[in-house]
Design a protein that fits this description.
2 domains; 6-stranded mixed beta sheet; two-stranded antiparallel ribbon; 9 helices; about 40% helix; globular; nucleotide-binding; Small_GTP-bd; GTP-binding; GTP binding; GTPase activity
Length: about 290
């Protein structure tokens, strides 16, 4: 049975411990007790996406709970080595905890984790981090809406969440509630999927995308007019080349070297039996083109 190490981080009081207790014991803790370090271990069955019969695989999930308070900033990273997946938690009704996702927690994980050994994640261009929004049940709480309105703030919106997931390169986002257990199981199933299955799916998707676009000329929208001019130059050159090959025995090709400006025409000359080399050289000079590489 494969073992997966999952470390949970985030601001204090966002519900990290409640998330773990609710998942492992199916009960919601009523009292808040700040965590220093705590470990939970459980077995989870996750559907195998590669199975056509819906078979499930068993995994041993080792859950590491951490303290979010600043006084533990030096101690907390000691739990990061050999982590398979991080869960960065924020509370959907606490915008400050969401801001700290990108300003504190993501930088701390990057600074204290060696990703050079995670080849799959490097290939798919993602970090082994799943973003988790807690206290989702409060989105439907009128009293909480009134409280936020009085503070001139609001719940963290989905567009804001999507932007952070994309900018930081997270594996995805899950929203849950430890009080109602809504989305609780999905959090840890997604965590397993992010470690075991999703990296390979992303790599295969990127390879297919790369192969389908390998023959296309990359265009920058900001310079589309200049690129169109380059395409016109290539078309005119091909037309010119075809009209002269049969008469003079010339052939040409247009080489493109990105990031430079240089002559790129290459020409060959079939030997003329009539000895008219001067005329050939004259034609060669006429046909020489300069191409500004964009």
């Amino acid at each position: 049975m494969r073992s997966v190490k999952c470390v949970i981080v985030g601001d204090g009081a966002v519900g990290k411990t409640s998330l773990l207790i609710s998942y492992t014991t199916n009960s919601f803790p009523q009292d808040y007790i700040p965590t220093v370090f705590d470990n939970y271990s459980t077995t989870i069955a996750v559907p195998d996406p590669q199975s056509s019969t819906g078979e499930q695989q068993l995994f041993k999930l080792n859950l590491w709970d951490t303290a979010g308070q600043e006084e533990y900033d030096r101690l907390r990273p000691l739990s990061y080595p050999q982590t398979d997946i991080f869960l960065i938690c924020f509370s959907v009704n606490e915008p400050v905890s969401f801001i700290n996702v990108s300003e504190k927690w993501f930088p701390e994980i990057r600074h204290n984790t060696n990703y050079e050994n995670m080849e799959l994640f490097l290939e798919c261009g993602k970090y082994p981090i799943l973003l988790v929004g807690t206290k989702a049940d409060l989105r439907d709480d009128e009293h909480e809406e009134d409280r936020l309105r009085e503070m001139n703030t609001d719940f963290v919106s989905q567009p804001e969440i999507d932007r952070i997931v994309h900018q930081c390169g997270f594996m995805g986002y899950v929203e849950c509630s430890a009080a109602t257990q809504e989305g609780i199981r999905e959090v840890f199933e997604r965590a397993i999927d992010c470690v075991v299955y999703k990296p390979e799916r992303l790599i295969n998707k990127n390879k297919k995308h790369s192969m389908s676009n390998s023959s296309k000329l990359p265009l920058d929208n900001n310079y589309s007019g200049q690129h169109e001019h380059l395409i016109d130059i290539k078309a005119k050159n091909a037309k010119f080349d075809n009209s002269h090959t049969s008469n003079n025995g010339f052939h040409s090709s247009l080489g493109i070297d990105a990031g430079s400006s240089r002559e790129v025409g290459r020409y060959g000359n079939n030997k003329q039996q009539n000895g008219n080399s001067d005329k050939s050289n004259k034609m060669k000079r006429r046909r020489k083109l300069r191409c500004i590489i964009l």
